[in-house]
Each structure stands twice: as structure tokens, then as C-alpha cells.
Amino acid sequence: MRQHINLFFLFILLGSPLFAQDATKDATFQAYPFDHKVFNLETLEYATSQDELSESFKTKSKYAVRYKGLAVDKLAYQGMLFEALTDNSLLLKNLETKATVPLPNKEKGLPVQGRSLLLEAMNGVIFIKPLKEDNGYMVYKYDKTGKELFGVQITHSEFVQHNELTYHLPYLGYLTHTANNVIFASYVDRIPKTVVLNTLDGSISKFDFSSVGIIRDAEMDMDVHGFIQLNKTKSSINVTYISDNFELKNPCFKNSTHIESLVLDKTLVLVAYNGRSPEVHLLAIDLSTQTLKWEAEVASLGGNATSAYFNTVWLGAYKDKIILEGYETKGKHLQIFDSLDGKRLWKSF
Asked: Which residues does residue 121 pair with via DSSP β-bridges, in sequence order?
């Protein structure tokens, strides 16, 4: 009897810190910063405290990388600041001592095509230099000391010769990234191409199709496990996920330009939207039957589609809830949906 009692108290003693840790973890994941406030994903209410969060769903959940995005000119990483300069070089600054060190610029003097990009990867920083013509993208990875871990070149243009006219036609652009990959895709219909850079070792995978979205692994949301291709003529998408390959038709795909996705058990949740209009569609596909499971009613802030309009969305999940955050010309919005049937549970406007 004494042994059982002692074991019971042993589990209590060992378990108490675990319960405290779990409670802290749950509180962190429940906290969702939005529009200078904190939204509680459990209660679907705004928090009363206005204290700034050091940790939240956007920094600690498995979807955190989705919210980090790209930096055009500066990126802070483990006490260091990586700054892209106008001559496509990179400056490293110690945020504590303020000491700066210029990193070697192997492409010094080469003309650039657009802005350089910085993003945080596993154990380092990725620096993407968009150079002109056949110089392509030069992509480097550095550790926090500025040591180069790898450097690779990715072709982004096609040489075109028409009679006496010759030029380079750009066709490949940044699509998205995960913790372990950067994905580039073609935006020219006659040049189908998707390129995946592995940011762990610098290896490159090429595919002869153009993607408008990727499918991340269901467990950690870190790796690419599939691709989504768009066929506007047929108002359909082609889904390639692990060993599955199928087509799904839906009128919403006709005007879509981007697709975000996540996998919940045997369900593929998609948000299809147009980057130049307020149009957003949320739907779920049953991967077992490869058929539409539900389509949600997404509220819109309104406005007309124009070349000046911008629209982007973030997709995440908390327990049995789908989180859809949008940022567009008309403003920001947050909407929560039931993952089982697509019913909207809450919206910010």
C-alpha cells in the first residue's frame, strides 16, 4: 500500500510542473495577435489585457513560419541584423555591440532585377538576389556569424531570339516558403516550371508544372508534401499530394490566382483567392474520396477588383477551428470557421 501511495505522490510531484507547462503552452497557442489586440482562439473573444505578447500562436504554433513572411531589406536573427544594400551586398550588424561587417559579395557590379529578399530558415538566414538575365537568382544561406553555408543559382529567365531581336524573358518568381524550403514557380503559361530549394543543404528539385500553392506536411508544417496547379479554363485545380493525384472542379477557381492549404487528418483545407480583388473562398476536400467536403461562406470587406487592389491571406488551425486572416486594400479581417462543417464561428467585422 505504501508503495502505491509513494508512486501516487511521485506522479503528482513530477506531474505538477508538466501541468503548469501544458497550461502555459495552451495559453500561448490560444493567444492570436490581430490588429493591435489579442484574440483568444479558445473563447473566441478579445483578451482584456493589452500587454504586448512575447510568444503567441503566430510565433510558437507549427504554423509560425507562415506568419514570418519575407523581409525586403532587413532581418533580425539571433542578435544579429542582416541588411541588404542597394548594390546587392549584405551587411551584418551585431545588435548589442553595433559592430558591422560587410559579407563577401560575389556578384558585385552585376545588374539586379527587383529587390533582394531575406527570410529565416532552419539554423540560418536565406538571402535571395534577383539578378538580371542568365545570372538568375543567387541564393545564399548564412549562419548567425555570417558564415556562408551554401550558395546556389536558379535560372529565372528564358533567352528569346526573334529575327534580329534578342532578349531574356523572366518567367520564374518566388511563390512561398516553409521552414525547410523556398518555392519558386513560373508565371508564364507556356513555360510550366516549379523549383523547390531545400534550405537545409541547398539541393534543388525541378518540376515541369507551375504551382499556385503547395501542401505542407500535416505533422509539422515544415516540408513540401504536395502541389496545387490551377486550370482557369476548366475552373479546376490539380492536386498532387504524396501518392495521390486528382482534379477538382469548382467555379471559385476561375478567378483565383493564389491558393493556401493545410492538412487536418484526412481533410485538405484550401483558401483560394485573387491577389487583385477581395474575392476569397474557403473549402475542404476529403482526401479519402477526393471530393468536396464543404465550402464555407467567407465574408468580404467589399471593393472592386482593380490592378491597384491587393489581397493576401494566412491560413492556420487551432484544435477544431480554421483561422483565416486577410489583409487587403480595404483593411484587415479575421474569421474563424468550424473545421468539421465549414460553419463560420466568428468574424472581426
From this structure: 124
Instruction: Supply the DSSP symbol for 254.
Output: G
Please state, in angstroms and rounded to a whole number, the distance separating the CA atoms of residues 298 and 176: 23
Residues 214-253 as b/e (b if ≥16 CB within 10 A, e otherwise) read: bbbbbeebebbbbbbbbeeeebbbbbbbeeeeeebebebb
**CA dist., res. 241 & res. 215, Å (int):** 7
Which among 262, 236, 234 has a CA at the least distance from the CA of 247?
236
Cα–Cα distance, 50 to 37 (Å, whole number): 7
Task: List the domain boundaries for the chain.
Answer: 212-349
The CATH class of 212-349 is mainly beta
Task: Specify whether the CB–CB gap between 127 and 139 falls below 8 A.
Answer: yes
Separation of alpha carbons 237 and 227, rounded Å: 10
Q: Which amino acid is at 309?
A: Y
Read off the pLDDT of residues 172-216 as tens digits, 9 standing for 90 and up: 999 999 999 999 999 999 999 999 999 999 999 999 999 999 999
At residue 19, the pLDDT reads: 34
What is the reported pLDDT for 23?
47
DSSP annotation of 112 reads: B
Whether the Cβ atoms of residue 345 and residue 336 lie closer than 8 Å to each other: yes
The span from the CA of 149 to the CA of 285, in Å, is 40
Bridge partners of residue 236, in order along the sequence: 231, 249
pTM of the model: 0.88
174 close to 167: Cβ distance less than 8 angstroms:
no
